[in-house]
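Audit log entry. Action: structure prediction of a protein-small molecule complex. Ligand: coenzyme A. The ligand was supplied as SMILES and no pocket hint was given, so placement is left entirely to the predictor. Protonation state taken as written. Sequence taken verbatim from the request; no trimming, no tag removal. Recorded inputs:
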Amino acid sequence: MTDTTEELKLQDHVGARFVRWPYEPDVTQVILLDHHMVPTPESVSAWAVEAVASDPDIRAVRTGAMFPDAAASFAEAGFRPIDTLALLEAPITPKSIRSLCRRKFDTQRLRASHLPDVAVLDRRAFGDPWGNDVRSLTDIADATPRHRARVVIVNDGNGGPNIGGFALTGQSGVFGYLQRLAVDPQLRRRGIGRRLVADSLCWMQRRGATVAMVNTGLDNEAALALYADMGFRRRSETLTILELAGDALHRAGGAR
Ligand SMILES: CC(C)(COP(=O)(O)OP(=O)(O)OC[C@H]1O[C@@H](n2cnc3c(N)ncnc32)[C@H](O)[C@@H]1OP(=O)(O)O)[C@@H](O)C(=O)NCCC(=O)NCCS
């Protein structure tokens, strides 16, 4: 598999595609095409075999953030959890965000020319192995029928423009998804994150979404505090990222 090749794999009518994990060419990510569908453990095992067959040098197969039913199928197929995420939602009604959306948030469109710097910021903000590269950022933006990508530009010490933070937001039907948010570590607690979240919520409301969803690490105190402050409440279920590696991957697909 090359860096950019994406393969459509259909098992039991549940589709998935494989992409390279950002910055780890020997790790394949399996992405469900529809996160409402739940694959069987047999489908998951078949994907693992295909992932190894398409690249015998892979070291691991990882999932994206899985809802509990899908995570259970991956676990039954031998995958192990490597991260657990809190899932939060906020109602979006004209009344609930009317005062919020009266303001302008001074954000700008994220342009293709911003992407390399945004990827560097994303990696600094999230750390390995969670940082995005340009390709995975583009994938996130393409994941929903409609999306909005914004940056906050600040002047650095020398007066030059720098990307202080960015947000990627998607919308599908009544759901708005705050998919990615990061602020330069040196520019935190200045209100940039709040501006970007507010901009996202107001865009979702304009597009007709009635529920905003976001996920973040269970121990990400800064993000949890920001989201709580913006009206998000935790849902009872968590999301899980899982990995098949080492002996389990060898057994599944015969990798070296
Ligand atoms: C989460 C993040 C985006 C916040 O950005 P920010 O620009 O620093 O946030 P703001 O300055 O707008 O903060 C708004 C409010 O959020 C809360 N908050 C933000 N950072 C906080 C922290 N470290 N501890 C506690 N509360 C915090 C506070 O209520 C804050 O209001 P206050 O400063 O008036 O007290 C930033 O910390 C970040 O990029 N983290 C790494 C990436 C990440 O976790 N992204 C989001 C999860 S997917």
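Audit: result stored. The longest strand covers residues 233-245. The mean pLDDT is 91.
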